Amino acid sequence: MQQPRRNLNVQKVPLSVLLWNVRGINAVKKQQYLDWLIREQRPDIVMFNETKLTSALYLNGYVSHQTLFKRSGGSITFSNLRNHKKVKALGTYLLWSKVLLGGEEVHILNVYLEPGHEKFVVQRADKVIQLTKDIVRQDAAAKIIVGGDVNGMFSKVNTSLLLAGFTPALIQGTPTHRDGHQLD
């Protein structure tokens, strides 16, 4: 969703990311399809949201980290990059991990916020925004990817990160669901 917009004199290294709201991934058929898709695409980073996982999931050749196991929500991040480590997982809504890319550390924030505007959802969106700003405050040259499914908090998160100097990968209003003529 977002990456920092700063003028840095940095070597550019290609990075491929697959981000998908899988809406549940416990079914064997869905896991087989995703395994096939990843073998075909070979992305460096895979971010799944709304996993609803009740047990660990692994992909051959990838290191993975995930949020709590629960029948609702959840995020999992896979990486085939060096030194993939989990920094923090908050409930089922936020997974923060780091990888090395071209010798540079990249922060990956994989987010799933439930639909709606209940107080706890707003607080979780605020936590994502604050965490991202804190990373930048500690390291102005930090490389950060913020991605996932933030549902009704998209405008809030997007606007806040734009104001913090991030560049969106998706422009607000971009269709993101395949059903109904949108991507998913």
Summary tags:
184 residues, alpha+beta, Deoxyribonuclease I, Chain A, four-stranded mixed beta sheet
Q: What's the CATH topology label?
A: Deoxyribonuclease I, Chain A
Radius of gyration: 16 Å
- What is the CATH-assigned architecture? 4-Layer Sandwich
Strand order of the largest sheet: 2-3-5-4
* CATH level-four homologous superfamily name: Endonuclease/exonuclease/phosphatase
Largest sheet: 4 strands, mixed
Which bin fits the share of residues in helices? 10-25%
Overall pLDDT score: 85
The CATH class, by name, is Alpha Beta
Identify low-pLDDT runs.
180-184
Q: What structural class do the secondary elements suggest?
A: alpha+beta
Per DSSP, the total helix count is 3
Distance between the termini: 14 Å
Helix and strand run: EEHEEEEEEHEHE
User: Domains counted in the coordinates: how many?
Assistant: 1
Strand content: 25-35%
Q: How does the overall form come out from the CA principal axes?
A: globular
Tally of strands: 10
Question: What would you say this structure looks like, in words?
Answer:
The chain is of the alpha+beta class. It has one domain: Endonuclease/exonuclease/phosphatase (Deoxyribonuclease I, Chain A, 4-Layer Sandwich). The protein has 3 helices and 10 strands. The protein has helices at 28-41, 119-138, 154-163; strands spanning 2-4, 17-21, 45-49, 63-66, 75-79, 82-90, 94-101, 104-112, 143-149, 166-168. The chain has a 4-stranded mixed sheet, with no helix packed on it. A 4-stranded mixed sheet has the order 6-7-8-9, with helices on one face. A two-stranded antiparallel ribbon has the order 1-10. A hairpin with a 2-residue loop joins strand 7 and strand 8. The radius of gyration is 16 Å and the shape is globular. The model is unreliable at 180-184 (pLDDT under 50).
